[in-house]
Amino acid sequence: MTWTAPETARSPQLVVGDERSMLQNRLDHHRATLLWKCRGLTAEQLVIRSVEPSSMTLLGLVRHMTEVERAWFRKRAAAQDVPYQHTTEQNQDGDFDDVDTADAAHDFALYRNEIDQCDAAVAPLALDYTFVHPRTGREISLRWIYLHMIEEYARHNGHADLLRERIDGVTGE
User: CA–CA separation, 62 vs 65, rounded Å?
Assistant: First the structure.
Protein backbone atom coordinates (compact mmCIF):
# COMPACT_ATOMS: atom_id res chain seq x y z
CA MET A 1 0.00 0.00 0.00
CA THR A 2 1.27 3.47 -0.89
CA TRP A 3 1.83 5.90 1.97
CA THR A 4 -0.12 9.14 1.79
CA ALA A 5 0.07 12.20 4.00
CA PRO A 6 -2.59 11.79 6.70
CA GLU A 7 -5.61 13.96 7.34
CA THR A 8 -4.95 16.73 9.83
CA ALA A 9 -7.43 18.55 12.03
CA ARG A 10 -6.98 22.28 12.48
CA SER A 11 -8.03 23.88 15.75
CA PRO A 12 -10.54 26.70 15.73
CA GLN A 13 -9.15 30.20 15.99
CA LEU A 14 -9.15 31.75 19.44
CA VAL A 15 -10.42 35.32 19.33
CA VAL A 16 -10.37 35.89 23.09
CA GLY A 17 -7.72 34.73 25.52
CA ASP A 18 -4.46 35.57 27.17
CA GLU A 19 -1.48 36.41 25.01
CA ARG A 20 0.33 33.08 25.33
CA SER A 21 -2.79 31.07 24.53
CA MET A 22 -3.54 33.17 21.48
CA LEU A 23 0.02 33.01 20.16
CA GLN A 24 0.13 29.25 20.69
CA ASN A 25 -3.26 28.85 18.98
CA ARG A 26 -2.15 30.81 15.90
CA LEU A 27 1.12 28.88 15.72
CA ASP A 28 -0.66 25.53 16.11
CA HIS A 29 -3.15 26.53 13.41
CA HIS A 30 -0.34 27.32 10.97
CA ARG A 31 1.52 24.12 11.85
CA ALA A 32 -1.62 22.10 11.12
CA THR A 33 -2.27 24.10 7.95
CA LEU A 34 1.07 23.01 6.49
CA LEU A 35 0.14 19.37 7.09
CA TRP A 36 -3.40 20.01 5.85
CA LYS A 37 -1.98 21.26 2.55
CA CYS A 38 -0.18 17.90 2.18
CA ARG A 39 -3.09 15.64 3.13
CA GLY A 40 -3.83 12.76 0.79
CA LEU A 41 -0.71 13.19 -1.34
CA THR A 42 1.68 10.33 -1.94
CA ALA A 43 5.37 10.50 -1.14
CA GLU A 44 6.04 10.90 -4.87
CA GLN A 45 3.66 13.87 -5.13
CA LEU A 46 5.16 15.54 -2.08
CA VAL A 47 8.52 15.87 -3.86
CA ILE A 48 7.19 17.51 -7.03
CA ARG A 49 9.14 20.74 -7.39
CA SER A 50 7.50 24.10 -7.90
CA VAL A 51 9.26 25.54 -10.96
CA GLU A 52 12.85 25.51 -12.17
CA PRO A 53 15.29 26.40 -10.70
CA SER A 54 13.55 26.24 -7.32
CA SER A 55 14.04 23.14 -5.18
CA MET A 56 10.89 23.88 -3.16
CA THR A 57 8.51 20.97 -2.57
CA LEU A 58 5.84 20.23 0.00
CA LEU A 59 8.05 17.63 1.65
CA GLY A 60 10.90 20.15 1.60
CA LEU A 61 8.67 22.64 3.42
CA VAL A 62 7.84 20.06 6.10
CA ARG A 63 11.55 19.25 6.49
CA HIS A 64 12.47 22.96 6.50
CA MET A 65 9.94 23.78 9.21
CA THR A 66 11.28 20.88 11.29
CA GLU A 67 14.65 22.61 11.19
CA VAL A 68 13.23 26.09 11.83
CA GLU A 69 11.18 24.89 14.81
CA ARG A 70 14.24 23.17 16.27
CA ALA A 71 16.51 26.16 15.67
CA TRP A 72 14.32 28.78 17.29
CA PHE A 73 12.60 26.93 20.11
CA ARG A 74 15.01 24.22 21.18
CA LYS A 75 18.49 25.32 20.12
CA ARG A 76 18.17 29.05 20.74
CA ALA A 77 15.39 29.71 23.28
CA ALA A 78 15.81 26.54 25.37
CA ALA A 79 19.58 26.28 24.75
CA GLN A 80 19.38 22.57 23.95
CA ASP A 81 22.40 21.07 22.23
CA VAL A 82 20.61 19.08 19.53
CA PRO A 83 21.75 18.51 15.95
CA TYR A 84 19.65 19.45 12.96
CA GLN A 85 17.67 16.69 11.29
CA HIS A 86 18.15 17.46 7.59
CA THR A 87 20.91 20.05 7.22
CA THR A 88 24.61 20.12 7.99
CA GLU A 89 27.39 22.68 7.80
CA GLN A 90 28.34 21.10 4.47
CA ASN A 91 24.74 20.96 3.20
CA GLN A 92 22.79 23.97 4.44
CA ASP A 93 19.90 23.26 2.04
CA GLY A 94 19.52 19.53 2.72
CA ASP A 95 15.96 20.09 3.93
CA PHE A 96 14.95 21.11 0.39
CA ASP A 97 17.65 19.56 -1.77
CA ASP A 98 17.66 15.99 -0.47
CA VAL A 99 13.97 15.14 -0.78
CA ASP A 100 14.32 12.72 -3.71
CA THR A 101 15.79 10.06 -1.44
CA ALA A 102 13.83 11.06 1.67
CA ASP A 103 11.29 8.92 3.50
CA ALA A 104 8.16 11.09 3.64
CA ALA A 105 6.45 9.08 6.39
CA HIS A 106 9.58 9.32 8.53
CA ASP A 107 9.96 13.06 7.87
CA PHE A 108 6.32 13.72 8.78
CA ALA A 109 6.82 11.82 12.03
CA LEU A 110 9.99 13.81 12.75
CA TYR A 111 8.09 17.04 12.16
CA ARG A 112 5.24 16.12 14.50
CA ASN A 113 7.71 14.97 17.15
CA GLU A 114 9.72 18.16 16.79
CA ILE A 115 6.62 20.26 17.42
CA ASP A 116 5.95 18.32 20.64
CA GLN A 117 9.59 18.69 21.71
CA CYS A 118 9.60 22.41 20.94
CA ASP A 119 6.38 23.07 22.85
CA ALA A 120 7.73 21.16 25.86
CA ALA A 121 11.08 22.97 25.71
CA VAL A 122 9.60 26.45 25.94
CA ALA A 123 6.55 25.69 28.13
CA PRO A 124 8.34 26.76 31.34
CA LEU A 125 9.66 29.98 29.77
CA ALA A 126 7.79 33.29 30.00
CA LEU A 127 7.12 35.26 26.82
CA ASP A 128 9.48 37.91 28.20
CA TYR A 129 12.31 35.36 28.50
CA THR A 130 15.29 36.47 26.41
CA PHE A 131 18.47 34.96 25.04
CA VAL A 132 21.32 36.25 22.92
CA HIS A 133 21.30 35.05 19.33
CA PRO A 134 24.60 33.19 18.81
CA ARG A 135 25.30 34.62 15.37
CA THR A 136 23.97 38.20 15.55
CA GLY A 137 24.54 38.91 19.24
CA ARG A 138 21.05 40.44 19.47
CA GLU A 139 18.84 39.88 22.49
CA ILE A 140 15.62 38.14 21.42
CA SER A 141 12.49 37.33 23.39
CA LEU A 142 10.39 34.19 23.27
CA ARG A 143 7.47 36.45 22.33
CA TRP A 144 9.40 37.51 19.22
CA ILE A 145 10.02 33.86 18.33
CA TYR A 146 6.29 33.10 18.44
CA LEU A 147 5.54 36.08 16.20
CA HIS A 148 8.38 35.18 13.84
CA MET A 149 7.25 31.56 13.60
CA ILE A 150 3.66 32.59 12.81
CA GLU A 151 5.04 34.85 10.07
CA GLU A 152 7.34 32.08 8.78
CA TYR A 153 4.47 29.60 8.57
CA ALA A 154 2.15 32.12 6.94
CA ARG A 155 4.70 32.74 4.19
CA HIS A 156 5.43 29.05 3.64
CA ASN A 157 1.76 28.07 3.77
CA GLY A 158 1.29 30.44 0.83
CA HIS A 159 4.01 28.54 -0.98
CA ALA A 160 2.27 25.29 -0.02
CA ASP A 161 -0.98 26.56 -1.59
CA LEU A 162 0.76 27.09 -4.91
CA LEU A 163 2.60 23.77 -4.76
CA ARG A 164 -0.59 21.87 -3.98
CA GLU A 165 -2.47 23.53 -6.81
CA ARG A 166 0.35 22.62 -9.22
CA ILE A 167 0.29 18.98 -8.08
CA ASP A 168 -3.40 18.18 -8.29
CA GLY A 169 -5.38 21.38 -8.72
CA VAL A 170 -6.55 21.52 -5.10
CA THR A 171 -6.71 25.06 -3.81
CA GLY A 172 -6.75 26.07 -0.17
CA GLU A 173 -8.59 28.46 2.02
Answer: 5
